């Protein structure tokens, strides 16, 4: 029987300060920098869940809602939403946290598919996900649809 883990066991929250070297020519956080931070966060979530090395298989729904600027605090919250046999989906929500009121404003949402690897860098089974809350159940169902779309795109060569 495969191991099981709760969503909360692998959730991460990562905080970055936007600095001048993170900015694009328009003075906003460079999208590639944010993608690097997201990939790192997704890897941490997946490693916590699988307790093994992981690799990024795909990125879905990388949606930029709003920019982030020099000196702002960026908060990335990642959690497992779905597991298959050797892969898992990680949802990443990114916020800008305002210092004056502590409020967080969404700037990005992304879904990463990660694959667990054994000591020979071959895919290995991942622990099952214990889905408890209504929001976790809804996320699981939405993740199944995203997985179906990914498989369809793969079959069609996209």
Topology diagram in text:
Layout: E1 4-6, E2 12-17, H1 31-50, E3 53-64, E4 73-83, E5 87-97, E6 104-117, E7 128-130, H2 134-156
Parallel strand pairs: 1-7
Antiparallel strand pairs: 2-4, 3-6, 4-5, 5-6
Description:
With 158 residues, the protein is of the alpha+beta class. It has one domain (4-156): Thiol Ester Dehydrase, Chain A (Roll), CATH 3.10.129. The protein contains two helices and seven strands. It has helices at residues 31-50, 134-156; strands at residues 4-6, 12-17, 53-64, 73-83, 87-97, 104-117, 128-130. The strands form two sheets. Strands 2-4-5-6-3 form a five-stranded antiparallel sheet. A hairpin with a 6-residue loop joins β5 (87-97) and β6 (104-117). The longest helix is centred in the last third of the chain and has 23 residues, at 134-156. The model has no long low-confidence stretch (mean pLDDT 95). Keywords: Hydrolase. Belongs to the acyl coenzyme A hydrolase family. GO terms for molecular function: long-chain fatty acyl-CoA hydrolase activity.
């Amino acid at each position: 029987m495969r191991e099981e883990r709760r969503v909360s066991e692998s959730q991460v929250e990562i905080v970055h300060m936007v600095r001048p070297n993170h900015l694009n020519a328009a003075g906003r956080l460079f999208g590639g920098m944010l993608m690097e931070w997201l990939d790192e966060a997704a890897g941490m979530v997946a490693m916590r869940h699988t307790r093994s090395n992981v690799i990024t298989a795909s990125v879905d729904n990388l949606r930029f809602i709003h920019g982030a600027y020099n000196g702002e605090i960026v908060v990335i919250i990642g959690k497992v939403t779905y597991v298959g046999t050797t892969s898992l989906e990680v949802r990443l929500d990114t916020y800008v946290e305002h210092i004056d009121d502590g409020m967080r404003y969404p700037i990005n949402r992304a879904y990463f598919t990660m694959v667990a690897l054994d000591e020979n860098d071959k895919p290995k089974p991942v622990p099952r996900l214990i889905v408890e809350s209504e929001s976790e159940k809804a996320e699981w169902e939405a993740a199944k649809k995203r997985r179906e779309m990914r498989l369809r795109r793969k079959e069609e060569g996209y």
